[in-house]
């Protein structure tokens, strides 16, 4: 079969091309890892070679300098609490907006959707003012409330689209059996929302984990709440061109989210697909 | 119908279900956004947050008459958006075409192309600062290729293309995932019918595949346009807007005006113009591509 063979050659050609492209995509990570194990002198002589000896002194030094354990803990705590809050509040709001489409609720849904287009820069300065009045600046509660506010629109939108497809009959049966409206939501409806909740968790986690400007404005002054992006930026502000330490710091800073992605990649890719197709 | 507890029960439910969301949304997004219309017309600085002086059209006059840097940043952002949107969507579509074929390493490759996306713009910018200034230099010395031997990030031109390269590298994987989902949904028999009718590979892509995946194209264009137009983190960590202010994006210009120059009022006025520009572009794009969507 001539046609089969030429098709196989073509596939092999595509495969080789794709693999080369993938190596090109990975090259930056090679540069970071290889050079993070070298001394500054070695880096400046040759940034492409493998390190001569595997020394982790850069890592242990920068671990202390950027207070990595604190930054990691803050990033985890802020992301986890905010995401949990967003899932809880946006699913409840979306449920009510779907099941009771009063004029007010429809208007509110429209406000949520329209607000998605507002760039962060267009609210940030006024937000600094509002959060100082409400004394939300500089502490954990403040930053969490901010993430709730900014995360709601997309999350309500995603839950809204999904809840429209949840049959009302199940809820009616539960009410017949004497279930309260709150029980109906938490025990019957919420468990059914799991697929879209996964999407909401993933999109918000990636955003909050990597966010820089909002934490600078809201908790920038409080060093005890420094997150990973803030700690790295502060390091670069103080030590320019200290690439041996900087690269070790960058390598340890990207590790948590990359590992999380590799562990959960199937869910993440599915989550992103369903999140964007609905949008 | 669900009728329990009558009217007061309804109110309580509305309060419990919608209340928390409404409050958070109002104080964090709605109120600050509306305040923006007021602060745009004031002289206001970051040191005395509670003192804003009404100055009428001063800020707008200043922006439209004298602020060359703002308009330079506007032009930079438009050019950046045009180039990156085209490049990342082409690359993403190409990757999706390859990775929907029966390749042995298909799943691994999808993972690799997606990885840059989970890392934030701040960290990526610092990583690439090293690649451009030290890595490229070494490669240039090894290969002698003039492409690598330029003063990367040291000139306006290399700064622009540096930002483009990192942005495309980061966003292509995300768009690839969306294109892959769309391509898997294209019915095989329609492509076979096109082949039987004598259409070549690229012809059937253009005439059959592309019209069928227009919803994905709409989404990907929307996402890339709005991300590119709002680029900030990468700008801050890769070039800091420099050399000089030659690679300042709009978002960066607003940030610098407010948080470096301490002119919050002027910054807010710029930010509201920024909002108008974003909405105009987004609405136009969705309207244009929605018209091209067809049913399978």
Automatic annotation (TrEMBL), chain A:
PANTHER family, per database record: ABC TRANSPORTER PERMEASE PROTEIN MG189-RELATED, ABC TRANSPORTER PERMEASE PROTEIN MG189-RELATED-RELATED
Family: Belongs to the binding-protein-dependent transport system permease family.
Pfam families assigned: BPD_transp_1
Bilayer topology term: Multi-pass membrane protein
Protein name, entry field: Carbohydrate ABC transporter permease
GO cellular component: plasma membrane
Superkingdom, taxonomy of origin: Bacteria
Keywords: Cell membrane, Membrane, Transmembrane, Transmembrane helix, Transport
TM ranges: 12-33, 75-95, 107-128, 140-163, 184-209, 245-264
Domain ABC transmembrane type-1: from-to ranges: 72-264
BP GO terms, sorted: transmembrane transport
InterPro entries reported in the protein's UniProt record: MetI-like, MetI-like_sf
CDD domains, per database record: TM_PBP2
Compartment annotation: Cell membrane
From TrEMBL, chain B:
Listed InterPro entries: ABC_transporter_permease, MetI-like, MetI-like_sf
Membrane topology: Multi-pass membrane protein
GO biological process, one term: transmembrane transport
Lineage per the UniProt record: Bacteria, Bacillati, Bacillota, Bacilli, Bacillales
Localization of this protein: Cell membrane
PANTHER family: ABC TRANSPORTER PERMEASE PROTEIN, DIACETYLCHITOBIOSE UPTAKE SYSTEM PERMEASE PROTEIN NGCF
Pfam family, one: BPD_transp_1
Protein name: Sugar ABC transporter permease
Sequence similarity: Belongs to the binding-protein-dependent transport system permease family.
ABC transmembrane type-1 domain sequence ranges: 74-285
Spans through the membrane: 12-39, 70-99, 111-132, 160-187, 208-229, 271-288
Keywords for this protein: Cell membrane, Membrane, Transmembrane, Transmembrane helix, Transport
Gene3D superfamilies cross-referenced by the UniProt entry: MetI-like (1.10.3720.10)
GO cellular component: plasma membrane
